[in-house]
Amino acid sequence: MRLFVAIVPPPAVTAELDTRTAPLRPAWPALRWTGPQAWHLTLAFLGEVREEVVPELTARLERAARRHPAQALAVRGGGAFPSAARARVLWAGVHADRPALAALAASVAAGARRAGAPSPDEDRRFRPHITLARLREPADLRPLTAELDRLAGESWTATRIELIHSRHPAPGAGRTPEYSRLGAWTLG
After folding, report:
1. Which of 40, 68, 95, 168 is catalytic?
2. Which residues does residue 92 pair with via DSSP β-bridges, in sequence order?
3. What is the mean pLDDT of residues 58-63?
4. Which of 113, 137, 169, 178 suits a disulfide with 118, CB 3.0-4.6 Å?
5. What is the pLDDT of residue 134?
6. Annotated catalytic residue within 68, 129, 165, 168
């Protein structure tokens, strides 16, 4: 099973982000834009996880969630990975108490590791973001990231984390993965 742990923004936040980014999409048809139903803040990408690991993983995630308070977040700014000049991923930034959010992400990753589902991205620096689009080939997105720098969404309080199963569609069935929630745990 392909899994990740995330914070999912409330519908009002995704609706606002959708409204702000919709006018940008027609000028950038080469990008594979994601939609509001797929927007999330990844805390730990776990990749392929054996099904027998899931019960221990869920217990560990519940403990990790209890150890951390709710998080005040807001969509602010944007950018691209690995850089705006040679982008493969376009993202909206997430403003937060960075040390608190990074501690939550580290706790989630540690719990996953102890459950037998180590994150392949665990050694990467945590950069809170919401993926807006992907590219097959690197492209210069500096004009687009300059537009995203103006994003300044309303704040919201994240009160839970979610374990999400990502299923890639069959060839010819579309390009976006389908997400289903396997569990959710309240912070604090």
Report:
1. 40
2. 78, 130
3. 98
4. 113
5. 94
6. 129
| 3-class DSSP string for the chain | CEEEEEECCCHHHHHHHHHHHHHHHHHCCCCEECCHHHCCEEEEEEEECCHHHHHHHHHHHHHHHHCCCCEEEEEEEEEEECCCCCEEEEEEEEECCHHHHHHHHHHHHHHHHHHCCCCCCCCCCCCCEEEEEEEEEEECCHHHHHHHCCCEEEEEEECEEEEEEEECCCCCCCCCCEEEEEEEEECC
pLDDT at 132: 98
Strand order in the sheet with 87-95: 32-33, 129-139, 87-95, 71-81, 152-158
| Residue showing tokens 């720098």 | 149
Determine what percent of the chain is predicted with pLDDT higher than 90.
89
Contacts of 90 (CB under 8 A, 6+ apart): 31, 78, 79, 80, 131, 132, 133, 134, 135, 141, 144, 145, 148
- Assess whether 165 carries a catalytic annotation: no
Q: Any idea where the domains of the chain sit in the sequence?
A: 2-186
Please confirm, yes or no, whether 68 is among the known catalytic residues.
no
Please determine, for residue 184, whether its predicted confidence score (pLDDT) is greater than 70. Answer: yes
- Amino acid occupying residue 126: F
Nearest one of 1, 129, 127, 119 to 61, comparing CA atoms: 119
